[in-house]
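Posting this for the archive.
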Amino acid sequence: MATAAGGDFISRLPKIYGMYTGGFLVFLVVLALAEYFLNLSDRTIGYVFLAATIGLYAMIGIMSRTMSSDEYYVAGRRVPAVFNGMATASDWMSAASFIGMAGTLYVQGYDGLAFIMGWTGGYVLVALLIAPYLRKFGQYTIPDFLGARYGGNTIRLIGVVCAIVVSFVYLMAQLSGAGLIMSRFLGIEMMWGIIAALGGVLVCSMLGGMRAVTWTQVAQYIVLIIAYLIPVIWMSIQVTGNPIPQFAYGGVLEKIGELEQQFGVAAGHVVPFARTDMANFMALTFCLMVGTAGLPHVLMRFYTVPSVKEARTSVGWALLFIFLLYFTAPAYAVFAKYAVYTDVIGKGLDQLPQWVAYWGKIGVVAVCDAVDVAASVKACATAGAGGTPLVGNGDGIVQLKELWLHGDAIVLATPEIAGLPYVISGLVAAGGLAAALSTADGLLLTMSNALSHDFYTKVINPGASVVQRLTIARVLLVAIAAVAAYATIHAPATILQLVGQAFSLAASAFFPALFLGVFWKRANKAGAIAGMLVGFLLAGYYIAGVGWNFNALLGVSFFPTPPNPDPALDGRWFGINAISGGIFGMPAGMLTMIVVSLLTRDTSPDIKAMVENIRYPRLSRA
């Protein structure tokens, strides 16, 4: 890729990725035949899948190496809309979407729809309010926009700090997902799984920056969507005979309702607000929507397209590619739950399928009868809701209340739950890893670019050469990755909780400054500084104070430990869970910014002219 002429390479992209998709499907068929005819072991299949995919991503990263600042930071601003849409979807659909979405719907049923509504609805805000205007502005990063729109380095540095914190929290979730996959399918400890995943990320992003990350993320999207769709289509055919799971799972949902009545389940899968309340449901939906329009690593993608029109179009493509997964997640949850209800519940301990023991060793499944065959006694003691113990009745038959499944295990374990060939399990692992790595790529690049471009180049050494700037960026990539690996091992929350908290922080820190910066000429530097600080600090205080255990995060015993690590703590404001801290931070930041802007000096005519130019596409030549 590095040697291809820019225009010629762009014109050949459909052919290149078409051949790549065909080659991946052939690889999948060959591996399936090897499993069937050669009795290829599960461990070997796992190694082959993960080695082949990570090796491919690394090769793309090496071939996309560059020493051009435009290529490193914004992929030369020549990524076509459809491919930027794929890269954005891959960047967006992290381990939380691939691993956690269906698991959340499995555990929470109707209440888990808040994630789907919030995350998809957020892209409407991105398309209408943010993406085209950022592309019209140009430059490289979100702090670039803040510095130019409001003036001065103070607001730029606040943007850098907020971008790093938001991205770091999000990165911990991705590395947790990658470590889970590595530990299960390679048989290594979680810590080494995290380190191995980071190695793959660094090879993809360090040499080529945004250029390498973009083309790698397109490849990763193809892998993850194939990996997500094949198992659920297979299960749909098995259970209903219909190969379109999105339209077939309704009948299975009725059967689940009947089984839940037999099991004495009071709050069934489809009962609204059975596991949360409407206030928390709406607060979470709001935070995820607004947070989407404030995530630095996603918004950076819209700097890479050739024009404002392409920025709008790429948002549409991204939403379509995201829709393919989100529209399928409810079917995933339903088919997995039906398989568990029919194959595990009511069975004797000696009749349990093998996947129960396999995933019990990882600590995400527990059967808690008198005889504990699937997990340690400690797991059963903390497996219930809020960390309450699960206690069996000792009859040797698995009851619903004696089974605990962590939501993060549902997608990864579904092929085994459904009795599919192990090659499908390897495929799902490769897809989950692609989702985690693609987002980790974008997050690491966001943090290193914020420090190298917005802090080092813009503040400390404005005269730095391109070589100096890119060298600093690459060194920072490695340093941030090392810190992230340590923090992830002591992660203070689950994958989905960390992701949701990152969205709340992004909504509180960035959305008011970005939205008012585009649509209100009166917004000034003092207002933006005050609004960002108030919103970010308020959301951060609520999230950390209510939902985090800092002793676990830092590996020390200095900070006071919350009396209950569950998100539903006594210290909540108005009963709102920690994951939705942005419901306080974003409005507070917006109000503060408006009030302070009105009480202080008006913006200059030059700034107002810049806002006018950003707002109206007819004034743009891009």
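The longest strand covers residues 365-367. Strands lie at 365-367, 403-405.
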